[in-house]
């Protein structure tokens, strides 16, 4: 089984800035949801909403890739106007690879 291996270590989503995205040529971000972008079963806080707006202004897609249920993912994604996939079976890469193709992303311009 092949796993994703990190190229970057970030402490908080806000470490990803407009300048950083441009420097790294990132067009798509695949992120976990609970305990990564929001506390379990919580909606986006103001800091996250501002960050999502910055991504949109920079034409960067934020894709949620969660092991949680699709209904939890939808409750978070729909109010924020982002795409999300539940039941991704991480750390296995097969579901993520499928979603990369579905959203028209490429691995060389994506952050996982």
Automatic annotation (TrEMBL):
Top-rank taxon: Bacteria
InterPro entries assigned to the protein according to its UniProt record, in alphabetical order: HAD-like_sf, HAD_sf
Protein name: HAD superfamily phosphatase
Organism: Halalkalibacter wakoensis JCM 9140
């Amino acid at each position: 089984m092949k796993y994703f291996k990190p190229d970057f270590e970030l402490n908080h989503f806000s470490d990803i800035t407009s300048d950083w995205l441009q420097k790294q040529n990132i067009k798509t971000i695949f992120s976990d949801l609970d305990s990564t972008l929001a506390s379990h079963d919580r909606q986006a806080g103001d800091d996250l909403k501002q960050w999502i707006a910055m991504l949109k202004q920079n034409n960067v897609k934020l894709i949620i890739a969660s092991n949680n249920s699709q209904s939890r993912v939808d409750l978070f994604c729909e109010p924020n106007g982002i795409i999300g996939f539940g039941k991704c079976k991480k750390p296995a890469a097969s579901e993520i690879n499928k979603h990369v193709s579905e959203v028209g992303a490429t691995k060389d311009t994506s952050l996982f």
